[in-house]
């Protein structure tokens, strides 16, 4: 590898868990990074909220509370954005790209909302915009989908892409504890943020689903295109019941091509679902992430690893940074945004799904027949039924075969109106099966 | 993505399983590939042994039995080499690179033996040499290691990278049948070649280990640097005994950094090993492949999928082809060979390993004490002992803790000389444990 003498200046915006690790690795591994890139990476500055507070391992002279001036500096060639959120991250990244600086970001919310605008700025200015760290932390997902599968046709991407919710569901499954108790515990252990809404309501996973769907299907998909349900209504009873069907419950991000009456569409959705215990995603526990990909020729692939945390996420950021830096040294460019297919987005109603419905029913003859009638009336065929308890505790659990989500949800709405159904206590979808 | 009008000419050398699928996908997915690349890919010719034999879906005019003339054609911009073996593949690839044509190959034996020479030709002529398909078929491994982990430090790569041997070992484990019977069955099913030597003796896995080690550790490692043992001596008794230790037997390719008295070295080795059932690699069965990577910051990653077969391997070839074609359209370049670290190769003697030793012993008091004495004399500490049978069928099974492979193998040699040890019937290493 030939060596270019000119150093490459890097600005890091944000110094939370990930930023701290990025700065540490940039410093500690400088010699390796230089050898791999063909030029030294030099940290020009770190933008933080409070520049007066000292940070271990960082020259105080590098700290600034003015990210805009840092990005604008002539000796900054590449910007690492780790502030998160939409503004000022969007404006800073756009300014960087428009002044010919490559950008590496871990900001899923921003990429899921504004990828088109930012990708265009990168393309117009012939620089790179990389965001491997935005989905599934250290696990290479973006690059395999964009590059390794560039000659294949992806049919489905299904993943566990949020560590907080996976930790909560795994703990509920293992200990039998309720959602509230496990969430509190997750907060104490640092697995859940003070305001866990983005995680537990599925917004974080929905952003990642949008990014995955965009890349997998060469179409622009934004977070608002993703159907989303969180895990806040999951009870320990649901996990118990799942076990009786040899399943566990996982918050899944699913992106797939579906065939509709109007032609091929993209479904992107996030919800807690029953997953059979023998499915590879069922064994992904705790804060780990995994993404399963089904492609026309490659078949089924699976990627597994740490989906969050400072060092793992920093590893993904550094990988992008080295590639962007090499492109600068060798006048190359990474892949551009590819949206040529422009497939339309399917509504959740159109998506073929399977349902698991648990309801409290009147303990009298004929109830099962009436319930089965509601499913049959909408052409939803029943795969399994379980009757439990008796008297005031009589319950009926129904698992359906595949049918349109509209037919399934309309059936549930009808069940809720039935006299003999006291309460529909739980409705979950079932994923990872072939029938 | 802007569109370049000039088509990109592709020559395919070899039309076996993979070549046939590459030609099919190039033809069937032409519109998608064109949109992703920004220029059409045009198949200029396919080199085969017998050009007079018709091939379904291929214009007979494209067939030629002269690969050298095909590679030399002015309208060929990129070459896909799927002939396999060293010559004429090496000469053809070198000619292509030296005439400014990018090359995609699935040829592990060639890359593992001649990567330096070929990488230099690619670099000198500013073209790409891609070989994702050479390791683990459809599973993206080369690209994640080269690019996604470009800013991290890989400590270990351990994988099941040969489908034939994994099929044989899985079948032996499941059915209890012997090696010979299962090998014959594998041949009938198309999982083993007529001459299975390259697979069952570990040569194929050793080539892949060399490629993985080169990339992971930024050093040049060739197949001859890889310590290698095949699976031909594995018996159904070994698999039975493995179960008693909650293990199974897998042919592993292991690449790791080890610390020796002379400093950091690379160990690259292939052998059948006991793997604990709870280890993720233990559950990879049949013709599937999986590669586990441990990196300083990313932690443990795992990649899983189909490691062989026409369509999966073609998917990897096409991914490389699209990236190389895009580089041609956008005047970019893929990553170059990176060997700056130039770490020395450790001999197997230096590598810390764990041993499983099964021996037939005399059924008399004091034997265990004598056997234990031989281990202790070489500072090899014993983790578990099992005594089985009695009389002429008395057996002793010892599992050791980690010690240098030299100490372990010297202990085994000493045991073989002992009067009270009738026969050392099986010696396997144990991998995938922390102690």
From TrEMBL, chains A, B:
Superkingdom of this protein's organism: Bacteria
Assigned EC number: 1.1.1.3
Molecular function via GO: homoserine dehydrogenase activity; metal ion binding; NADP binding
CDD domains in UniProt: ACT_HSDH-Hom (cd04881)
Annotated GO biological process: methionine biosynthetic process; threonine biosynthetic process
Segment forming the signal sequence: none
Residue span(s) of domain ACT: 356-429
Cofactor: a metal cation
UniProt keyword NADP present: yes
PANTHER family referenced in this protein's UniProt entry, alphabetically: HOMOSERINE DEHYDROGENASE
Family statement drawn from the similarity comment of this UniProt entry: Belongs to the homoserine dehydrogenase family.
Protein name: Homoserine dehydrogenase
Organism for this UniProt entry: Gordonia sihwensis NBRC 108236
């Amino acid at each position: 590898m030939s060596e270019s003498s000119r150093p490459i200046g890097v600005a890091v915006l944000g110094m939370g868990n990930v930023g701290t690790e990025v700065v540490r690795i940039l410093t500690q591994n400088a010699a390796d990074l230089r050898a791999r890139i063909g030029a030294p990476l030099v940290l020009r500055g770190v933008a933080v909220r409070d520049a007066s507070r000292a940070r271990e391992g960082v020259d105080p002279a590098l700290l600034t509370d003015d990210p805009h001036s840092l990005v604008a500096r002539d000796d900054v060639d590449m910007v690492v954005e780790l502030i998160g959120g939409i503004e000022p991250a969007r404006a800073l990244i756009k300014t960087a790209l428009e002044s010919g600086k490559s950008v590496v970001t871990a900001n899923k919310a921003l990429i899921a909302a504004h990828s088109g605008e930012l990708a265009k700025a990168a393309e117009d200015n012939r620089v790179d915009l990389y965001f491997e760290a935005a989905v599934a932390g250290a696990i290479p997902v973006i690059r395999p989908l964009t590059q390794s599968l560039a000659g294949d046709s992806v049919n489905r991407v299904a993943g566990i892409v949020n560590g907080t919710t996976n930790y909560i569901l795994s703990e509920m499954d293992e200990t039998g504890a309720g959602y509230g108790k496990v969430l509190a515990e997750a907060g104490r252990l640092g697995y859940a943020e003070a305001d866990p809404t983005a995680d537990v309501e599925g917004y974080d996973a929905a952003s990642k689903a949008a990014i995955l769907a965009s890349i997998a299907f060469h179409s622009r998909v934004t977070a608002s295109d993703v159907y989303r349900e969180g895990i806040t209504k999951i009870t320990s009873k649901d996990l118990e019941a799942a076990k009786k069907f040899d399943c566990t419950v996982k918050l899944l991000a699913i992106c797939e091509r579906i065939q509709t009456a109007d032609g091929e569409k993209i479904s992107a959705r996030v919800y807690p679902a029953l997953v059979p215990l023998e499915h590879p995603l069922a064994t992904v526990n705790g804060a780990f992430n995994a993404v399963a990909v089904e492609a026309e020729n490659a078949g089924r692939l699976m990627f597994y690893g740490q989906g969050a945390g400072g060092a793992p996420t920093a590893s993904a950021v550094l990988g992008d940074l080295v590639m962007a830096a090499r492109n600068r040294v060798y006048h190359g460019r990474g892949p551009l945004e590819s949206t040529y297919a422009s497939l339309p987005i399917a509504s959740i109603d159109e998506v073929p799904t399977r349902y698991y419905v648990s309801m409290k029913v009147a303990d009298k003859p004929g109830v099962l027949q009436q319930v089965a009638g509601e499913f049959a009336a909408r052409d939803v065929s029943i795969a399994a039924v379980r009757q439990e308890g008796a008297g005031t505790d009589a319950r009926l659990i129904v698992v359906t075969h595949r049918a349109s989500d509209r037919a399934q949800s309309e059936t549930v709405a009808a069940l809720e109106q039935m006299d003999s159904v006291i309460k529909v206590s739980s409705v979950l979808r079932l994923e990872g099966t072939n029938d």
